[in-house]
Amino acid sequence: MLELEDLSVTYRIGAESGGSFGEVPAVRGVSLKLAAGEALGLAGESGSGKSSVALTLLRLLPRSATVGGRILLDGEDVLTMNWGRLRAVRWSSASIVFQGAQHGLNPVRRIGDQIAEPLLVHKLASGAAADTRVKELLEQVGLPAWRARSYPHELSGGQRQRVMIAMALACSPRLIIADEPTTALDLMVQAQVLTLIRQLIADHGISLLMISHDLSVLADVCDRLAVMYAGRLVEVGPAGGKFEHPYSQALAAAFPTVGDPASRLAPRGLAGDPPDPQQLPGGCAFHPRCPVALETCASTDVQLLVSGDRAAACVLVGE
Ligand SMILES: Nc1ncnc2c1ncn2[C@@H]1O[C@H](COP(=O)(O)OP(=O)(O)OP(=O)(O)O)[C@@H](O)[C@H]1O
């Protein structure tokens, strides 16, 4: 239902501050497919371009961004559709749950009115029918119906995140994009919200694109995982399988797997920092940090190579 073809996002910087102009290539040639009802996880360190991908999907990027490639949602290109069509697609075909719900809710409006807003704007319900739908949505996300009259400050962080999920579900979209939906929450609440997301997408047959730096969170919810590094996809494969790219392996080793006695944390984590997008190293962008890099990695720009149900961009994979 969703297909990204050679997607690129480049930010222009310096224009606002009057400083020197520059370009940040945040996303570089990302191609991905998401089937109806499928849950795909997008992982990577901070700055790898995950949020830029998420924001591009509904054209929410700032004006300083230039986007290339195609984003086909049910066969229609989001990047070229007119504003009227885009407004119709937002919320009703696809909606986004952002990280840090407390910043997403209006502090001076009641929860119920905020959940009802997309229903009213999209003329899906009004008056008593909208009130009934709001109560139904609150119950679906595990909150009592009377919470409709609460203000955001009267809710905990976990409850506010549930409200954001209720808003995202309001117009019954076929796709939900969840950008770090549990990052701001403590571990117990994070587990509850993840269980809720898993259950809702299964019950309603919704496709999910979930973004996180934490691979173990994604593996818990998603059918497939995609890993980004310096704006590129380095690996895509089934959530249950073993990673082949050295970067995905290092990222996976950075998080403990609760309940798996065989899992060991990487003793020193991954050395070094991700590259500055304005000064990307030649060849494979990961080679300066790669523990198994060869001489050729400094000059060979590897593309994703598909083998069975997995694709990885590394000269060592498939050897
Ligand atoms: N509005 C912007 N203007 C200029 N550069 C930007 C802008 N937004 C993001 N970037 C740059 O684009 C790159 C990718 O950022 P992005 O937020 O997409 O990464 P991310 O993987 O989602 O990181 P995080 O997990 O920290 O949110 C980074 O180098 C970032 O500094």
Automatic annotation (TrEMBL):
Q: What kind of membrane protein is this, topologically?
A: Peripheral membrane protein
What are the alphabetically sorted keywords of the record? ATP-binding, Cell membrane, Membrane, Nucleotide-binding, Transport
Domain named ABC transporter: residues: 2-255
Where found? Answer: Cell membrane
Mind listing the GO biological process terms from this record?
Answer: peptide transport
Indicate yes or no for the key word Transport: yes
Question: Which is an annotated Pfam family here?
Answer: oligo_HPY
Could you tell me which Gene3D superfamilies the record lists for this protein?
Answer: P-loop containing nucleotide triphosphate hydrolases
Cite the SUPFAM superfamilies for this sequence: P-loop containing nucleoside triphosphate hydrolases
Q: Name one GO molecular function term.
A: ATP binding
Q: One GO CC annotation, please?
A: plasma membrane
Family per record: Belongs to the ABC transporter superfamily.
Name this protein carries in UniProt? Peptide/nickel transport system ATP-binding protein
| Classification lineage | Bacteria, Bacillati, Actinomycetota, Actinomycetes, Propionibacteriales
